Amino acid sequence: MTRSGVSLTLLGLALLAGCAYGAPNEDAAVDLRFGPVLSPPWLFETRGGDLVAQSSRPDTPPHLLQPAKDGRIRDISAAASRASSIVAWLTASGEGRKLQLLEVPAQGELPAPVEIASRISSNAVRVVADERGRRYVLDASLGPNPRVQVTSLGDESSPSVGKRIELDIAEIGSIALLSAVVTEQRLYLFVTSSTDTQAVISALTYRLPSLERDGPVKLVSEADRFVFIEPLVHSKKPGVVYKYQRDGTLGLGIALHHGREWQDFAIPDAKGLDVARATASAWDDGRILIVLSGEDSDHFKQRIYAAASNDWGKTWEFQQISRPKVSATRAWLPDLAVSGDRVAVAWEDSRDIRAAVHLQLSRDRGRSWLDQDIQVSDERHYAMRPRIRARKDDLFIAWYAYRTDARKKADGTLVRLSWQDAFGRAQRERHQDSTDDKRLELRKTVNDYWDALQAGDLRRAYDHHDPFFRARMPFDAFAARRGQFVYHAHEIRSLEIDGNVARVHSTVNFEIPKLIVMGREQSVPRRDSPIEDVWLYVDRAWHRQYVDAISGGSAIKY
């Protein structure tokens, strides 16, 4: 069942959110299945099953777009054009799946959602917009026997919901990944599919507004597998950035459309890196900027890099832009915003152990970067999965933040920051504790921890553990585990500090007078034992990272 030909402007007669459905449940946590869906000035998220729109304006309360009782959100996508945003989502209920969308103005009341189709099999939705402000919603059934449909929404001067049209993808037997761009009166669809021997990225072209196929399927790239694809537009031509694996080696590539052909380039310095996320932008003179996070698991964790080309991908410059250059903590999941020559990159950074959102800036298309990036989230909450968009003279940055160090429930945050304020904040010095001071404090704290255990002061020892562990394990449970040990002496053998992570090697003399194993009483005689601990510098103090002896897991990832 589909609905078509509905004018979006008529929907202004029906008010949304608080009026139509009541206020959202603000105590409910966000659903972490979906990253923050940002389309300035709105952040879209699911809370306790409710679909909610949050504005960057502090005087605007959250709007309830769809209550949880109407079904489970399966996928959500949004895109901004010049004066409004389009958000589309798939809902699953007892009556099957349905596709809905909403045009969200920059200001004023929100209209009611529009149901585009119901009782459909789609499991993915994408919203795309072109340089003229025309918007399109794609819904697709990924997997074997795929189907892709497109609904045209017109442009902002004449918004309307057009007919939902199924695209001709007859040659495509299955789809694993899907993305699309619209430019120069064409919709370009990128899909990945696999055979027994290889995976391929294919491009299909459709004329607008008819959405008729324009030529055969084009082979864009081949690999053993593709992990993600990210589309871009370069000089009004389509392109796609992708993560590949070939002969067991991971890497990052880019394919660009020139004339009627596709040119495929690997980025040399990204070969061998495990890339977690990449995003790109291009200018009309041949410059391409890709921001990515990647790691070499044998040497360092995820770091933020900028790869730039001035000749449409033939040659590349590659540099790390996350600071400082430590290997013990990760900086990852970058997102990119561009306004003219100005570039902003936001990412999740664990240099201070409790992850925060950091921002790096460039005035010259990423040719040079500021000496110091800035932290935009607060230090008290673990912040993650940032998204950033530029609109006029402002930057909009969204992320999720856990309510406590137990990291069980999170909320969405959306901030608005002018370019001028962002560059101004970057000029302020950030306090840095000297390595010598941290080393002295570390030795003092480690000694106090073992002194507390020797004295039987379990409360003092417990307080030296990392706050993430303490948020999950109460003192009584900790004391029950540690109470079996009797400590007699300790000696620090070495200290190694990398940023805010330290490895401490000690020798500890202990015994276990009584131990019940499988119903039998046993004991461990007094002995010396080598100990290797990890200590984390959190909240301007050192804390012992608690590591489970059986699983090797801990309460924090960095």
Automatic annotation (TrEMBL):
InterPro entries documented for this protein: Sialidase_sf (IPR036278)
CDD domains tied to this protein: Sialidase_non-viral
Entry-linked Gene3D superfamilies: 2.120.10.10
Keywords: Signal
Signal peptide region: 1-22
PROSITE patterns according to UniProt: PROKAR_LIPOPROTEIN
Descriptive protein name: Exo-alpha-sialidase
Organism: Thiorhodococcus minor
